[in-house]
Amino acid sequence: MWGIIPAAGAGSRIQPLAFSKELLPVGGRTRGEEERPRAVSEYLVERMIRGGADKLCFVISPEKSDILEYYGAAAWGADIAYVVQPSPAGLCDAIFRAAVLIQQTEPVVIGLPDTIWSPVDGLQLLPSDVLSFLLFPVEHPEFFDAVVTDADGRVLQIAVKQRGASSNWIWGAIKMPGRVFHALHRLWLSPERHDEYFGTLVNAWIARGGVAMGVPGGEEYVDVGTLQGYRAAIRLLQQTSDDDNSRFRSDKKGSSDGQRLNRNAIR
Q1: Which of 22, 30, 225, 248 is deepest in the core (most CB within 10 A)?
Q2: How many domains does the chain have?
Q3: Residues 127-147 pLDDT 10s
Q4: Interior angle at CA 113, CA 173 and CA 7, nearest 5
């Protein structure tokens, strides 16, 4: 299973930083008596691996070589590839940069690397045979993509950053078969589309008879891309015992870069 991590954004809401926002230290790991800081993107990486991903693709901008240096070629048993988004062109453009790597038969999970959410095994709640969204309740859905479903969980519409959305459940992670990923890619390449937001593309997919499911299995969701969100993430981590902090073993098969990450981030 592939995990796609769009990490090409400039992070302007939380600048100035001397490094990529995906490497922002949030919380820490404790092993024995030693504690080390964690990069915010590690929370997503670990959730993807826990959800079954054994290959990860970071989509980075040309300026974000520090992400490559930090993660290297492997981490926690998962191989890592990198593709480049030359300039900021929206989430859809970033996600589909990975299309050259994805086989029709391979499931795909997608998440945002500047978020922290629970439960840590939430991706396991999503089916593998249909486009599905892990949904989280929030107080202000107008800042996110609110997902409207019917009584059976079938997605009716995604309200992209709309005031007065009829649902306070937002998507925080996505799972789908490879064949659906490529079908969405083909739709996005249509002359009339090239959507910036994934939600508007899914609305078009549904209008054409496509099926998407929403699974309200999320509990807490924090966007760390703002200073307010960063503070909320610190509070969340202080209030909860995130038991994935020390559960992932070092990748003994990975490259020296991947092993270096394991030593620095896990021990």
Answers
A1: 22
A2: 1
A3: 999 999 999 999 999 999 999
A4: 115
